[in-house]
Amino acid sequence: MKGWLFTKTGVAPKLVEKEDPKPKDDEVVIDVKAAGLCHSDVSALEDPSWMNLITAAPVIFGHECAGVVSKVGKKVKSLKVGDRVGVSPQHPNNPLDAIGYVRDGGYATKLAVPAVQCVPIPDSVSFVQGAAATDAGMTSYHALFTEGKAKRGMKVGIIGIGGLGQFAVQMALIKGCKVYAVDVDADAREYAKKVGCHKVYSDVLELEKDAPDLIVDYAGTGKTTSDAIKAVGFRGTVVIVGMMKLESTIDTYLMITKQLTVKGSNGGNPDDIKGVYKFFETGKLNPELSTIKFEDIGKGLKQLKNHQVKGRLVALINEEKSGK
What we know:
The chain is of the alpha/beta class. The chain has helices spanning 39-46, 127-147, 163-175, 186-195, 223-231, 252-257, 270-281, 297-305, and strands at residues 2-6, 14-17, 27-37, 59-60, 65-72, 84-87, 90-91, 94-98, 110-114, 118-120, 155-159, 178-182, 199-201, 214-217, 237-240, 261-264, 289-293, 312-316. It is globular, with a radius of gyration of 19 Å.
């Protein structure tokens, strides 16, 4: 097999060859067909503190992928060879056990993973969509619906209309929420208008007149979080997802007098991925997904670093056998 090996912060990952993985009794081996590139990988290449999380380094990078089951462990009954699956990045019973961090990940032609982390991909959903759903989609869904409890008729503010925010605004609209989008980037605001958001702003504080029931902060600049607390409605909820800046000064007076709920959301689980696949099956969920070749993952990470990617960037792997 081939894979992109991460060694440490400051060192670019390199394409290497390794022995093909063999499944343990509770695992399957997947022929990876698509792998999404994530900003957190860029952060890991630049910020030494990420080495505390990437405990398996040197390790094959990548935590957002989909493919076809090619081998099945002795105790696995839920999957069979030939099944199309997406891979939840984190083990549902141990969130710290994550592919690309604690064990080899998805920037590879093959991947061994516990069967419990695999989610069947519906026939109408492509491998590219299936991969993007396993991190960008999952993380967006978990914050919006699992933690934020978004439902039909709610006023929902979405901060940051990037790789995660695009999933969020579309899923919220499909669900029947009234969606208010915020982004400093003009192109992102145009995207939000195009997909049908009720109002689109460049500043979080502009949400204050709408008093959303829920605000999800996919940017996490510090100020976006503190401004969300000012803008959210009485007894509203603010969910923090973005990690652009890892601290914020918030107005506790407003938290008390408005009786607010503020919570963090980290990743998700296989059930969240299933939820994203259901949205894809409607045919209405269409986030911007651009593709590159497997051999260009190194270049793709540089594109992410230089803010040259709109939406989500996905690498195509084993293309000659990729199917949908």
